[in-house]
Structure to design on (462 residues):
């Protein structure tokens, strides 16, 4: 049974008063963790230039307590940092947003001649014409550096003409981050340290290249059969597009800087101006509204073992950042953000139901056991099956190979169903763990039965 109730949270809250928010948020987060099994989460809340709350709950995958100073992955929230770095270069006249990116980054070449027209602004608002459908960035061999991320585009083509369509594509921001390196003459991590993290006092923040660079505090979990299971992040490259590691205290400073920080008001307005191709996506920020219709500026972030979300409410001056150590299949950071915003607005936060997820897991677990049992039965009775056949009749074995075919073709099938979004096979296993366990088991079971029956038939004919 839950230790607290939503009613208690609502009674503790005086609507729209900053002093009451921390107590209410802490109670809500703990209730959320108890209801879902979320292992660890960090939360930062600001109002204007003041830090209202910065704290951690639960534990990391390494077993350490999550505190306000625990570095965690912010995933695609990193895009706001990359966009800021580019805007800083634009304000000092080192780049112009509407000039071709190749003017400043000659190494940025593609097999498609239209790529010469891609502007820096189009990289940042995701209208460059690059897309997963034309360049499967996740399933291709992963680079180790930003230079390598740009170099692998030499054989790539565009999905659309630059500036004509929106497509969320991580490579846009990897090119932008490499541009910062080349124009500034220093590694992207060093640039952020000198021009963003140190000026803002974000002393525990950094940016990394690949999954191998994630510290134990930034690794996360999947839910399987209602239990949180710690797993390493699948292979991937994220610098520029999703490589930032930060803490609740540091993210609080970052949120405050969006009101008083590192850019002119003109540049801030430009960063928050969406493109005609997508009125909800600007330069590293998304434009939206709360459930009550309050305008917000936000950006989410998803890894396969962690999620994050940041949000600004310009009218009231509130800012919120959430980092959770469970993967994108569960959206805990976004769900917590929605509840915290409801508290700030004087509403009642809702808890998610995990029943459907648990029932799905139980169903596939049972299917896995049944599949193993049927495979064992089929293998044991293979000789008897072969004895009843007058010929090889191989077509009767074909249905047993369907799971294997599905295993082999799952990634391209998913790409079609996901409208071109790319994913590696192992990443699909992180998204649908119990289904994938059953599918692999079914593929192995089918092969076992086929092999046993063919062996039985061959022995009868010798």
């Amino acid at each position: 049974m839950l230790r607290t109730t939503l009613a208690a949270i609502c009674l503790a809250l005086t609507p729209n008063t900053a002093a009451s928010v921390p107590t209410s948020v802490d109670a809500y987060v703990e209730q959320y963790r108890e209801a879902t099994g979320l292992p660890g989460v960090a939360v930062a809340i600001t109002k204007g230039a003041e830090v209202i709350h910065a704290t951690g709950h639960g534990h990391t995958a390494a077993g350490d307590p999550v505190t306000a100073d625990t570095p965690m992955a912010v995933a695609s929230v990193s895009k706001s940092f990359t966009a800021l770095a580019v805007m800083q270069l634009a304000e000092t006249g080192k780049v112009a947003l509407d000039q071709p990116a190749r003017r400043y980054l000659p190494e940025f070449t593609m097999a498609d001649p239209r790529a010469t027209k891609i502007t820096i602004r189009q990289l940042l608002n995701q209208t460059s014409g690059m897309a997963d459908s034309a360049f499967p960035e996740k399933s291709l061999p992963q680079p180790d550096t930003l230079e390598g991320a740009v170099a692998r585009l030499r054989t790539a083509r565009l999905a659309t003409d630059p500036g004509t369509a929106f497509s969320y594509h991580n490579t846009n921001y990897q090119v932008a981050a490499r541009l910062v390196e080349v124009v500034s003459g220093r590694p992207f991590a060093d640039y952020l340290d000198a021009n963003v993290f140190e000026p803002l006092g974000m002393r525990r923040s950094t940016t990394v290249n690949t999954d191998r660079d994630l510290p134990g505090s930034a690794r996360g979990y999947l839910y399987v059969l209602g239990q949180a299971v710690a797993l390493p992040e699948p292979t991937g490259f994220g610098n520029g597009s999703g490589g930032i590691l930060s803490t609740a205290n540091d993210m609080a400073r970052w949120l405050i800087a969006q009101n008083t920080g590192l850019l002119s008001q003109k540049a801030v307005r430009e960063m928050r101006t969406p493109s005609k191709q997508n009125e909800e996506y600007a330069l590293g920020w998304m434009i939206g509204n709360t459930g009550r219709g309050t305008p917000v500026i936000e950006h989410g972030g998803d890894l396969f073992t962690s999620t994050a979300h940041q949000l600004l409410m310009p009218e009231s001056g509130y800012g919120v950042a959430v980092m959770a150590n469970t993967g994108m299949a569960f959206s805990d950071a976004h769900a917590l953000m929605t509840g915290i915003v409801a508290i700030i607005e004087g509403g009642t936060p809702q808890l998610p139901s995990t029943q459907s997820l648990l029932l799905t897991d139980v169903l596939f677990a049972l299917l896995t056991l049944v599949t193993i049992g049927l495979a064992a039965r089929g293998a044991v009775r293979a000789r008897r099956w072969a004895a009843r056949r007058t010929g090889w009749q191989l077509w009767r074995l074909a249905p047993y190979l369907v799971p294997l075919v599905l295993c082999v073709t799952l990634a391209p099938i998913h790409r079609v169903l996901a409208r071109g979004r790319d994913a590696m096979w192992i990443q699909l296993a992180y998204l649908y763990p119990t289904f994938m366990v059953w599918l692999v088991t079914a593929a192995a079971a089918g092969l076992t039965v086929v092999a046993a029956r063919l062996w039985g038939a061959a022995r009868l004919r010798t």
